[in-house]
Amino acid sequence: MAIILEICVETMASIAAARAGGADRIELCSALALGGLTPSAGLIAAAVAQPLPCHVMIRPRGGDFAYDADEVAQMERDIAYAAGAGMAGVVFGAARDGALDRPVLDRLMACVRTAGRPLSTTLHRAIDTLDDPVAAIEVAVGLGLDRVLSSGGATTALTGIETLRAMHERAAGRLKVMAGSGINAGNVAALLAAGVDEIHASCSSPRPSENAALHRLDFAATVPITDAGRVRALREAIDS
After folding, report:
1. I need a labelling partner for 37 at 20 to 30 A (CA). Which of 60, 92, 114, 225 fits?
2. What is d(CA 59, CA 154) in angstroms, rounded to the nearest whole number?
3. How many CB atoms are located within 10 Å of the residue 73 CB?
4. Quick one: which of 155, 145, 168, 163 has its CA closest to 94?
5. Per mean pLDDT, which range of 81-90, 123-132, 152-161, 218-227 is the poorest?
6. In this structure, are residues 206 and 14 in contact, taking their beta carbons and an 8 Å threshold?
7. In the predicted model, what is the mean pLDDT of the chain?
8. Domain range for residue 124?
9. SS3 sequence, the chain?
10. CA triple 225-48-110, angle to 5 deg
């Protein structure tokens, strides 16, 4: 079975580059510099109109993954909107005190089940903040999630490769383990040998603005732009 390559993006230009490079799926976000937040309605609508399946990030803010009642309600509304807009899947997570926040995740999964159309579900890298990401696989399976995105609790997936291997073994085919963080054509073979099921990458480089006022006012002055050549190189490395 071919390994799925998912590329995370925050612009339509990056979606076009991911498609040109041979990506299988898009993770649609805003604010990748913050780890990815829920994108705008306009970007969601534009992304749905192109042919690659898109999974949308459901994350109301940067920072930790311990959400209050208003934030959970916002996430529920965002899931319902994503389903109505035609998204193929949703990406979310919730964690508190070193463990997955089961009550919040139960609510989000209930929203998925009542969304009116099938949605694929991904637990994002909130799992990497846990005391025991391997044991958390059992919780993710019990929730009915389709996959987890993880770097094995490390800064990069290659550094966390042994934890990713253990997560894959614990999952035992009950859900997919998708490796992400720092993956490129030069290191993906080692991760595939560890048994991960899918690959997640940005294949991007920052494009700094030449507008001096942005720097002076401390506005975000760079935009991550997906490089079609890097996507293609990663796709070829996976396929070989």
Report:
1. 114
2. 21
3. 13
4. 145
5. 218-227
6. no
7. 95
8. 4-239
9. CCCEEEEEECCHHHHHHHHHHCCCEEEECECHHHCCECCCHHHHHHHHCCCCCEEEECCCCCCCCCCCHHHHHHHHHHHHHHHHHCCCEEEECCEECCEECHHHHHHHHHHHHCCCCCCEEEECHHHHHCCCCCCHHHHHHHHCCCEEEECCCCCCCCCCHHHHHHHHHHHCCCCEEEEECCCCCCCHHHHHHCCCCEEEECCEEEEECCCHHHHHCCCCCEEEEECHHHHHHHHHHHHC
10. 110
Alpha-carbon distance of 82 to 41, in angstroms, equals 9
Tokens coding 46: 């534009």
Q: What is the CATH number of the domain that holds 160?
A: 3.20.20.380
- What would the pLDDT profile of 189-239 be if each residue is shown by its tens digit? 999 999 999 999 999 987 777 777 777 777 766 778 999 999 999 999 999
The reported pLDDT for the residue numbered 223 is 77
Three-point CA angle 55, 190, 3, nearest 5°: 35
User: What is the C-alpha R_g of the chain?
Assistant: 17
Dist. CA 87–CA 72, nearest whole Å = 20
Overall domain count for the chain: 1
Q: What is the pLDDT of residue 194?
A: 96
